[in-house]
Write a structure and sequence with these properties.
heterotrimer; A alpha/beta; B alpha/beta; C mainly alpha; A: alpha/beta; Rossmann fold; 2 domains; 10 helices; 12 strands; B: alpha/beta; 17 strands; globular
Chain lengths: ~270, ~375, ~350
């Protein structure tokens, strides 16, 4: 609440959930968090706790039950869709498989909020697309069909698309999923670079080691609510403990204390 | 073990015997050609012997090649004396009949037996007023069409005979349940006759069924004599033979009656030329509108325009038809002069029995003034 | 920023596409003219040319100008309309088997026509009520299609998931067909025959007035489809992503449904349901142009649809013989092998979506 003037993205008493017909289900108590410009935020939480729902709500894809989302001080619900798309980009775990679509085509779709009524790629757009491709090191891939890509390559293409969108905020739902270790490191390095260059990135992941390594801030979602802080803070405070497992693991190779020690290496 | 085998043998036998009786109606029973007192009709013959009258129906529906059905008409009370398949024995005179076509009605009532009609397929299509009142009063029940035939109703009427007409072998399926239970069915194939007199001659079938052969003969002979007189009289006159077009197109296709149809005989006998007289087919031929149009340009007269009652309706069906010479000159006639409010057309009812009248109608149309001030009975001009 | 040539889209694919367009345009023109030359009645080519320039006899002129020319135009329009709407349905539902009739539009039109032919005609086998003739069929078909369209719009506003809408549409189509089956069960042979012939489709039956209305409707549909190009491209990614890049999903659905209804509904109203073109042609276009960009696919489908439809029409005429085949059978016979060839041939087509 004290860094509202610096934060790009601010969430206050947000109640997220999903609707089922007339009624709905609110997943969590009201959430209040924020992200600053150029910050890399990792969203951590158990399966099913509502990470995806939170990210979709912040992007505007899902309506909230209550509370406010502020994008650069402006209320999200008041921003028209097209304008919103110029501010926030989104990547989910959904796998896109369209035939006859090249990497270039897919990245070019990111220019949707900027192009004219029929979607002509003008010079500005072309430059943005090229820049995005360069940044994600996809220059040699532009003519490949997206169905021929590996998972890691496809992720990079999706990130390139969001880059082409020129959005200052990038929301990513499990960008490291389905990737092997080098793949994960590749993407994690990429989003770290992007955050360094000024993008605000909020991503969810199960990979705690990577999160601790690259993230500037962590949003930890628990049943009781959300805790935000730097990785060091949260690890010291023991907020992560419920993430590691239960007491039943004590005595085995994955006892809480041994995992904590292992993770401290990543800070 | 042995008892099981015997059981199975019984079951198999039971199946095969029941199958046989069901198939019986459809099997081909080849019968040598019998001399009969039938002159024009091709699809039935009647032979009398001491014990009964044998009625043979030949090729009763389209595609029923080589199939004949025999029926043994025997006086009431004497059925047991006959050694024949019981499903083929019909006690006569028939007292209760169900008809599937209005043609049957006209012939029955010409013999004075309209009281025997207990059920009809489509009571609203009846033209004859007397029959209509019988239907309205509930005396004659409507038993439905084709697959929608009301079997229960038929059973409750429990007729001596059902007179069917089949468009194909599927129609046999519609009444298989009924025949299984013993109701007698005769397929009336008069609509397949290619000779107008052959069609009319089917009244003799009804004559045999009602034991009124003499009445049937006299009705038929009157019509036949009248027809033949007309035909030869027309034949003797040396007139120009106008070309005749029939029917209406439906969307892109025009179903053309073939040259071996009865209507072609009527036209030829009336001193006209049917434009497709040289074709041969067992069903209406689907020609493209284009093809028919080219030929239709040569037509002098246009007959039997189906559902169209005015020139306007023809035009709205397709404006290209208005360019035909026969349209422009207004020589369009339809066989719808005698229509009942319910949509019944007497052309198909009494017309079948009166080919001579139809012949005169058509001849008077094709050759105006030939019969003085004769007004066609079944035909009217399309304005 | 100076970008190397391998980053920007290579020119040859653009040139390739332009070349294909030109070839198809020429092919379409040739086929269109061929359709005028071929028909049931054998007319020598020189006579046809004379008829076009008005120097042949009135008979030949009627055949060419009143029969074949309107039919050729109708064929072209039908091919275009069905192909565009099929493409839209395939993209919106991300389903390679979707077609213009997947929402029940043709079933609605069929019900409208069935009510008139099977419900009302007494002894009239071929509808001819009060001089309105063919228009009765058109209006009733349009009414049926229109009701279905409104129903779909309503469902679309209440249901979030696009797959649910697809299934509901298909159920609607089946339900309406079932109602028609009931009506058929209680009909006589002649009425049945009239209805069945309607379902076989006919291209040559339009008066000039009707042709005008059809052309105007389809032009309106084409215009709407052009506005939908950007939306369709976004929808390739699925509705979630499309929303995230700024697409108004609700508006997109309404536009696309309206466009499909106008195109498919008009065709069905005037010509009866014509199957397979809507499903097969978009695949042909995708494979010829090797792109997923609707800026190319929409005009590509227009050309491909016209070509395939005219070929079907020529075949159905059985040139030289006096009989004709119903157009629906021909489009199926041509469409099925084409789709099989397309699906099996392209390595890139293991899944269309």
């Amino acid at each position: 609440m004290d860094n509202t003037d610096k934060s790009i993205l601010s969430v206050r008493s947000l109640e997220i959930g999903y609707r089922k017909g007339r009624s709905g289900r609110i997943l969590l108590p009201p959430l209040t968090v924020s992200a600053g410009s150029g910050e890399l935020v990792a969203v951590i939480g158990r399966n099913g706790i509502g990470k995806s729902t939170l990210l979709r709500t912040i992007t505007g894809l899902q309506p909230a039950f209550g509370g406010i989302i502020l994008i650069k001080g402006e209320e999200l619900s008041g921003i028209p869709r097209l304008q919103l798309a110029r501010k926030i980009g989104y990547i989910s775990t959904e796998i896109i498989n369209v035939s006859n679509m090249t990497v270039y085509d897919l990245v070019a779709l990111g220019r949707f909020p900027h192009t004219n009524w029929i979607g002509t790629i003008d010079r500005t757009s072309r430059e943005a697309i090229d820049a995005a491709i360069l940044k994600t090191r996809l220059e040699s891939f532009t003519d490949r069909y997206i169905t021929e890509l590996s998972d890691g390559e496809r992720q990079r293409v999706m990130i390139a698309r969001v880059l082409a969108q020129d959005a200052s905020i990038m929301i990513m739902d499990e960008p490291l999923a389905f990737l092997d270790m080098p793949g994960k490191y590749e993407i994690a390095t990429l989003i770290h670079e992007l955050a360094e260059s000024g993008k605000t990135i909020v991503f969810s992941t199960h990979d705690l080691s990577i999160a601790l390594k690259v993230a500037d801030r962590i949003w930890l979602i628990l049943k009781e609510g959300i805790i935000e802080g730097t990785p060091e803070e949260l690890l010291e405070e023991g907020s992560f403990d419920s993430m590691f497992g239960s007491e039943s693991f004590n005595g085995g190779p994955f006892s809480v204390s041994s995992v904590k020690n292992y993770l401290k290496n990543f800070l | 073990m042995r008892s099981e085998v015997i059981c199975w043998v019984f079951i198999v036998l039971a199946f095969t015997s029941s199958c046989k009786s069901r198939v019986d109606i459809l099997t081909s029973e080849k019968y040598p050609d019998v001399k009969s007192s039938v002159f024009y009709a091709q699809r039935f013959s009647i032979e009398k012997n001491d014990s009964c009258t044998i009625l043979t129906i030949k090729e009763p529906w389209q595609g029923a090649e080589g199939i004949s059905q025999l029926f043994y008409l025997v006086a009431r009370g004497k059925e047991s004396e006959l050694k024949a398949d019981p499903s083929r024995i019909i006690p006569v005179p028939v007292e209760k009949i169900i008809c599937m076509s209005s043609t049957h009605i006209a012939m029955i009532s010409a013999l004075g037996e309209e009281r025997s009609i207990s059920g009809i397929s489509g009571t609203n299509y009846i033209y004859d007023n007397r029959i209509l009142t019988l239907a309205d009063s509930g005396f004659i029940r409507d038993i439905g069409y084709d697959a929608g035939i009301n079997n229960e109703l038929i059973l409750s009427i429990s007729p001596d005979l059902i007179m069917m007409y089949g468009i194909g072998s599927e129609s046999a399926g519609y009444i298989s349940k009924i025949t299984e239970l013993g109701t007698k069915v005769i397929y009336n194939a008069d609509y397949l006759e290619t000779d107008p007199l052959g069609k009319a001659e089917w009244i003799k079938v009804f004559g045999a069924l009602y034991c009124k052969e003499e009445k049937a003969d006299s009705v038929f002979n009157a019509a036949a004599d009248s027809y033949n007189e007309l035909k030869s009289a027309i034949g003797k006159m040396n007139m120009v033979k106008p070309a005749v077009l029939l029917g209406l197109p439906y969307r892109d296709t025009w179903f053309i009656s073939p040259g071996n149809s009865y209507i072609k005989s009527l036209i030829t006998d009336a001193g006209g030329v049917y434009l497709w007289k040289d074709t041969e087919s067992s069903f209406s031929m689907p020609y493209s509108f284009e093809t028919v149009y080219m030929k239709a340009l040569k037509a002098d007269y246009w007959l039997n325009t189906g559902g169209a009652g005015t020139k306007n309706e023809i035009n709205s069906l397709d404006p290209k038809l208005a360019k035909l010479q026969c349209y422009i000159s207004g020589n369009i006639y339809n066989n719808t002069r005698r229509m009942s409010p319910g949509g019944g057309n007497d052309y198909w009812e009494s017309g079948t029995m009166n080919p001579d009248i139809i012949l005169k109608d058509i001849a008077s149309i094709l050759h105006p003034g030939l019969f003085g001030n004769y007004v066609p009975v079944y035909y009217k001009k399309i304005e | 920023m100076n970008n190397g040539p391998d980053i920007t889209r290579p020119d040859f694919s653009r040139r390739y596409i332009s070349l294909i367009f030109i070839i198809m345009l020429v092919l379409l023109a040739v086929l269109f003219i061929l359709d005028l030359f071929l028909g049931s009645v054998a007319i020598s080519p020189s006579y046809i040319l004379k008829a076009i320039f008005g120097t042949a006899g009135p008979d030949v002129e009627t055949i060419v100008m009143d029969f074949r020319l309107p039919k050729a135009i109708t064929t072209l329009i039908v091919g275009i309309a069905l192909s565009i709407s099929g493409l839209q349905m395939q993209t919106l539902f991300r389903n390679p088997l979707a077609g213009p009739y997947v929402l029940g539009i043709s079933s609605g039109a069929s019900l409208g026509v069935a009510v008139v032919i099977l419900g009302f005609s007494s002894s009239i086998a071929f509808v001819n009520l009060h001089g309105l003739g063919n228009w009765i069929l058109v209006i009733s078909a349009w009414a049926g299609a229109g009701v279905v369209m409104l129903l779909i719009m309503y469902i679309s506003s209440r249901v979030r998931n696009i797959m649910t809408i697809l299934i509901l549409g298909m159920m609607l189509a089946s339900g309406l067909s079932a109602v028609v089956s009931i009506m058929q069960y209680f009909s006589s042979e002649t009425m049945l025959k009239a209805y069945v012939i309607w379902t076989m489709g006919s291209l040559g039956n339009l008066s000039s007035g009707q042709l005008n209305v059809l052309v105007i409707s389809v032009l309106a549909g084409i215009l709407l489809s052009i506005f939908s190009i950007k939306m369709l491209n976004a929808l390739l990614l699925g509705e979630n992503y499309a929303g995230s890049i700024g697409l108004n999903i609700r508006f997109a659905r309404i536009l696309i449904f309206a466009c499909t209804s106008i195109l498919a509904g008009s065709v069905t109203a005037f010509c009866g349901p014509i199957g397979f073109i809507g499903i097969a042609v978009p695949h042909i276009a995708r494979n010829i142009f090797r792109t997923s960009d609707h800026k190319v696919l929409i005009p590509g489908s227009i050309l491909a649809g016209g070509i395939v439809m005219i070929i079907s029409d020529i075949v159905s005429q059985l040139p030289g013989s006096e009989s004709v085949l119903p157009i629906n059978s021909v489009t199926s016979l041509i469409g099925i092998p084409v789709v099989i060839w397309v699906i099996l041939g392209k390595r890139n087509n293991s899944r269309s979506f």
